[in-house]
Amino acid sequence: MIILAVETSCDDTCISILNIKNQKSKIRDSKFEILSNIISSQVKIHQKYGGVYPFLAKREHQRNLASVLKQSLLEAKLLKSKIKHQISKTQIKIQKLKEILKREEVLYQQLEEFLKNYQKPKIDAIAITIGPGLEPCLWVGVNFAKALSYYWNLPIIPVNHIEAHILANWLSPVGNVKHQISNVKTLFPAVCLVVSGGHTQLILMNNFGKYKILGETRDDAAGECFDKVARILGLDYPGGPAIAAQAQIVRGQASVKLPRPMIKQKNYDFSFSGLKTAVLYNFKKQSPKNRKKEKYIKEICYETQQAIVDVLIKKTIKAAKNYKAKAIILGGGVAANRQFRIQFQQKLKKEKLSFKFYVPGFKFCTDNAVMVGIAGYYNWLKGKTKTWQKIKADANLRID
Ligand code: KG4
Ligand code: ZN
């Protein structure tokens, strides 16, 4: 089975094509071969705002989608030009296409041109992120997927972005994490932590499609905190990698001390906006000269990263213990943080905790469409396929 997956929930325009091999009734036997994985990042555009500006992001998705589609099909060796007589037959379909993309004029023009010139590729279904995410961004992707589904007469599989971040772990074993998610029997229940720019959620996974949210952030997401702190300190967007690159204690102990919000509370919720405010106050307290000092920047970055890492590890392990989880599964952009990954494993080892520990490869932590394809495949197995008329974006979609 070949799935074309589309992801536009935030600021990356992503299209990936997956070939699902060893497809058997037992889902754990499936293997995902990545035929293409195109990510068109908008980082440069949002950099000056220090965060994602939804309407700019929507505009960029519109501009990018047709060319990302072409690149993705090309990389997967599925792009074939039409022969002359096929071109004229497509006129009636083009009218409907215009209707589906009536709010995306630029995208419509580019897609029309593309569809006029290229044949329907050998794919079996289209997977699309329908939520949660930024509403205007989600809708561009959804309308694009609907247009393709209609034009090529293919089923659509709606995908939850958070579930996609979790299922990115089904791709392959990663780095020095020895386990491979293959034996589902010893995996569930699993405690999943999805930490990204838009979300921080602790989720109990009892099986594919069976989730319960245990807790989540009450204000800013962990990635958002990284981004906002970076902005305060005058570092690049996205803030996570920028802060990680600076984080270092120059001599002895960090002179800056920051709070670990909600770390001692019994619930599984998080709160990161206070941490950002603490950084802001600390920064304002410094003399203009000190604010620019390398030592100060390195130390406050170190403390910010450490505060976030401490809270995430503590609460996830607590949930895993209380719910007698067999595995801990991470996902989302913040899971790409090296210190977070290293310290998590060290903590498990130090406390002699036997939870299996999974985290996607670095490039599959941040947004991509491969994870959408994987989630799409599992949804397809569950019969969650829809016709294009029934697909809607839902910015507040919940996994449970
Ligand atoms: O999953 P993602 O690509 O998009 C959302 O679904 O939001 O996550 C993006 C977030 C950004 O806030 C970014 O600063 C953060 O992930 N991030 C990191 C790292 N790489 C990306 N945070 C900490 N350390 C990193 N290495
Ligand atoms: Zn994401």
Explain this structure to me?
By secondary structure, this protein is of the alpha/beta class. It folds into 2 domains: 2-165 and 366-390, Nucleotidyltransferase, domain 5 (2-Layer Sandwich); 177-359, Nucleotidyltransferase, domain 5. It has helices at 43-47, 54-75, 84-88, 91-100, 105-117, 135-152, 161-167, 222-233, 239-246, 273-285, 288-291, 294-322, 338-350, 370-381; strands at 2-7, 12-21, 31-41, 125-131, 156-160, 190-195, 200-207, 210-216, 327-331, 356-358. Strands 3-2-1-4-5 form a 5-stranded mixed β-sheet, sandwiched between helices. Strands 8-7-6-9-10 form a 5-stranded mixed β-sheet, sandwiched between helices. Helix 13 (338-350) links the parallel strand 9 and strand 10. Helix 2 (54-75) runs parallel beside helix 5 (105-117) and helix 9 crosses helix 12. The longest helix has 29 residues, at 294-322. The two termini are 27 Å apart. It binds 5'-O-[(R)-(carboxyoxy)(hydroxy)phosphoryl]adenosine and zinc ion (ZN). 5'-O-[(R)-(carboxyoxy)(hydroxy)phosphoryl]adenosine binds at residues 10, 196-198, 223-224, 226-227, 238-241, 244, 332-334, 336-337, 366-367. 5'-O-[(R)-(carboxyoxy)(hydroxy)phosphoryl]adenosine binds next to helix 8 and helix 9.
